[in-house]
């Protein structure tokens, strides 16, 4: 592949992945080379309970439904793409825009 040619990606999604996975939230963490996004789905509603030290907390039982590993060099591109998509979504749904 020549470095002076523009890149045109042809990305497909296998049929078994078209529906995707619903996630209630994501946990983001990193190591020296990779950012890891764990997409998490709650198993049941939060329930009041106490920690070992007696403090009250809302216990959330949840499970990772998908883990995505992104090379550190690609994180900026992912952030820009998310920002672009968020801006488009906000312009399409101004009533739901966060303050």
> How many β-strand stretches?
5
For the terminal residues, how far apart are their CA atoms?
45 Å
| Spatial ordering of strands, largest sheet | 1-2-5
- Structural classification: alpha+beta
Question: What summary fits the major beta sheet?
Answer: 3 strands, antiparallel
- Specify Rg, calculated over alpha carbons: 19 Å
As a percent range, the share of helical residues equals 10-25%
Strand content: 25-35%
Write up this protein:
The chain has a 3-stranded antiparallel β-sheet with strand order 1-2-5, with no helix packed on it. The mean pLDDT is 93. The protein has one helix at 75-92, and strands at residues 25-30, 34-42, 47-50, 56-59, 62-71. It has 1 helix and 5 strands. It has 99 residues and is α+β, with helices and mostly antiparallel strands.
What keywords describe this structure?
99 residues; alpha+beta; 3-stranded antiparallel sheet; 1 helix; 5 strands; extended
List the helices and strands and how they pair.
Blueprint: E1 25-30, E2 34-42, E3 47-50, E4 56-59, E5 62-71, H1 75-92
Q: What's this model, at a glance?
A:
By secondary structure, this protein is of the alpha+beta class.
């Amino acid at each position: 592949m020549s470095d002076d040619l523009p890149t045109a990606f042809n990305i497909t999604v296998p049929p078994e992945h078209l529906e995707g996975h619903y996630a209630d939230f994501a946990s983001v963490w990193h190591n020296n080379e990779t950012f890891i996004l764990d997409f998490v789905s709650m198993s049941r509603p939060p329930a009041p309970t106490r920690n070992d030290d007696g403090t009250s907390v809302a216990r959330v039982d949840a499970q990772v439904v998908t883990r995505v590993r992104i090379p550190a060099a690609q994180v900026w591109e992912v952030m820009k793409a998310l920002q672009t998509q968020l801006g488009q979504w906000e312009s399409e749904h101004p009533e739901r825009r966060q303050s």
